[in-house]
Design a protein that fits this description.
This is MBL fold metallo-hydrolase. This protein is of the alpha+beta class. 25% of the residues lie in helices and 25% in strands. The structure holds zinc ion.
Length: 315
């Protein structure tokens, strides 16, 4: 598996700038609450009642999502987004799904442990009358900080104490291996200790899943590797289908219109590009609804064939 690295010094500088900016922001006092919403976008899909909560948003250099992309094309893309250039503001959309007797969260945000513009999920759930102790299942698409680090509080106690935690076995084994740091680009190695501590905190409640398994009837796990080795997405039965994905598609313009651009957060870029293309071809052909963790809130829409690639059409 190849590790994606910048093609020139500027890209590496951008990666360092990103990690450095995150560290600086965490060292300063936390931002005050940024206006939590007392409502959440709600819709029904088949047997599933879904509400989309926000954990806030990330701030990353857009060039990290498009390493080596032609500058004029990237500029044109950024002009069409709301983020102040040269940054991207990926959203953090977290679906809460009620089905049968289950209340299921898909990823848990960063718990304010990674970027100060994230970590709103718990407060937002409470504000909307959802008791974190009532969550029965937490599905973890992969183990990056913005998806995982919200599992426990500063005392190390689980924020969702009664849930079982569903994660890919390959993902778990990758991050828990004693030499995982050597598989990561140097600037990402700092996330390993907290990631391992966080996963260790759920060891007694974890359920390993694999491609084809169902979390509950009608909610199927399928592999979308490349971003991390064991990342999966979810396919939910109903109408023409609903796919919930985290970082197989990270940006509603870049990932759809330029799926071959190298995303600096993809651990194995060649695998990630193949995953993106396969997923886009499938959902466009079958008109499957998408819910993307990082698309503009609430992150729901469709992929349409467009030129030699696709475009995202919000639902
Ligand atoms: Zn992410």
């Amino acid at each position: 598996m190849s590790i994606s690295t910048g093609r020139d010094g500027r890209d590496l500088l951008n990666r360092r700038t990103f990690m450095g900016a995150t560290a600086d922001a965490l060292a300063s006092p936390l931002l005050s609450d940024r206006g939590l919403s007392s409502s959440a976008y709600a819709f029904r899909h088949g047997a599933f009642d879904i509400r989309v909560f926000s954990d806030g948003h990330m701030i990353v250099p857009a060039s990290m999502l498009a390493i080596g992309a032609p500058a004029d094309k990237l500029e044109e893309v950024l002009r069409r987004t709301n983020a102040p250039t040269p940054m991207a503001w990926p959203a953090a959309n977290i679906p809460l799904i009620r089905v049968g007797g289950d209340l299921i969260l898909v990823d848990v945000g960063d718990g304010r442990n990674f970027q100060p513009t994230e970590g709103e999920l718990l407060a937002s759930l409470r504000l909307n009358g959802v008791d974190p102790a009532a969550i029965t299942k937490v599905v973890l698409t992969h183990s990056h900080p913005d998806h995982l680090w919200g599992i426990s509080n500063s005392a190390g106690e689980l924020n969702y104490p009664n849930a079982t935690y569903h994660i890919g076995g390959a993902e778990w084994n990758f991050w828990m291996s004693s030499d995982v740091a050597t598989s990561l680009p140097a600037d990402f190695r700092g996330i390993v200790p907290r990631t391992q501590r966080t996963l260790a905190a759920i060891a007694g409640r974890v359920i390993f899943v694999k491609h084809g398994d169902e979390i509950v009837p009608g909610m199927k796990v399928f592999d979308t590797p490349g971003h991390t080795p064991g990342q999966f997405s979810l396919a939910l039965k109903g109408e023409d289908g609903l796919i919930i994905t985290a970082d197989a598609l990270t940006h509603e313009v870049i990932s759809f219109e330029y799926p071959e651009w190298v995303n600096g957060f993809d651990l194995a870029s060649d695998v990630a590009v193949a995953t993106r293309r396969k997923l886009l071809a499938q959902v466009a052909a079958e008109r499957t609804k998408l819910l993307g963790f990082h698309f503009s809130y609430p992150g729901i829409g469709y992929a349409e064939a467009f030129g030699s690639a696709y475009r995202f059409v919000a639902a």
